[in-house]
Amino acid sequence: MKPCRNILLAAIAATLPAAAWASQDSLHLKIGDPARSGQEQPLVLDGIRDTAKGDLVTPAEMARRLAGSGILFIGENHTNLDFHHVQFRTIKALHEAGRQVMIGLEMFPYTEQAVLDNWVAGRYTEEGFLALGNWYGNWSYNWNYYRDIFLYARDHGLRMYALNSPRPDVNTVRNKGFEALAPEARAHLPPQIAPATEDYKTLFRSVFDREDALHMKGPMLEGLYRAQMMWDGTMGWNALQALKADGGEKAIMVVLIGAGHVTYGLGAERQIDPFYDGRISSLVPVTVVDDEGKPVKQVRASLANFVWGLPEERATVYPTLGVSLMGSFGKATGQIIQVSKDSVADRAGLRVGDVLLSIDGTTIDSSNTLNRVFAAYRWGDSVIARISRDGVEQDLPVAIRRLRP
Question: What predicted TM-score, i.e. pTM, was given to this entire model?
Answer without folding.
Answer: 0.91
